[in-house]
Amino acid sequence: MPTFQKPRKAVLSNEQLAQFQTSQCHKDIVSYIESLNTSVIGVKLSDECPQSPGIAAILSLLNRIEGLVAEIPPVDNKASRFGNPAFRTFCDRVTEMSHDLHASLPNLPEDAIPEVATYLEESWGSRARIDYGSGMELNFLCWLFCLERLGVVQAEDHTALVTRVFWRYIGVMRKLQLTYWLEPAGSHGVWGLDDYHFLPFLFGSAQLKGHKYIKPKSIHDNELVDEYAKDYIYLACIKFINSVKTASLRWHSPMLDDISAVKTWEKVNQGMIKMYLAEVFGKLPVIQHFLFGSILTWEGEFPERHDESQCGHDHSRPTVQEAGGWGDCCGIPIPSVFGAVEAEKAHGVLLSGPNIRPVPFD
């Protein structure tokens, strides 16, 4: 019988990051991402796909978490365009419910719950900083990986894990971002893709591989985007970005604009995987928060516990700052895009048309 353990951090230096990148854990997670990616090639969100009982149980769990948002409204924070403190109450409630939520999942051993639940609890954003980024999104993927290893879902569920479960998670995250004005983690959003997410663009580009007439440049055709957003994750993300940001895609999402010049979705998808390995798995400011337990294992001794500041980073180590490529490890606080939009409305500024006053979010 496995001995489950509460996951903890192990990567605090560039040397440990290099060790992680050559580990079996790294290989397993990358292989999992590639398998999920392959499972949705040419698949629409509405297409039928195999679903074990675990899929329905996970979706029910996500529905319960989303239900907390209605119970925990944002506090009056109109003077600030930054994260709403009510998000901390949401995080506390998720933690309080965590055991019961996981007890509802089929085939999950009870003694595994503390380990597995940690990944889900860390999937919604930073309680301390009221922000969200690709590291939290990675935690959700790790949660799914653990559930599959423990038999809650199977490999045959991979398509449903993307088109049903992961996409449902993104829907809950959008509600959290909108309600609590979560700040983008770091000062650059996710490299011009989206203030918060990376994986929807990776999986979304796989869905569009080989499409007869939707091409990467089609993201600039608003009518086409509106028509097919219900079928394809990539286009749904473009529609969402266009709905909350002013000015053109070329201005506020330069990376997406550059990618639209690529000829095929095959090349886009290949590039997304390479970028994910470099900019998520290859960055110390992200992987220093990666959690290792008995399922996602750290090969070696865990470092001695170090003092952390409120933001959750060890600022005494210069390697944290040096390795990130984006300046300091926390990044510069960025106002929530939703907070900025509300500020625009409050001041009577047009959100579309020739009088747009763009606000630099990225």
Automatic annotation (TrEMBL):
It comes from the Eukaryota. This is Phosphotyrosyl phosphatase activator. It comes from Thelephora ganbajun.
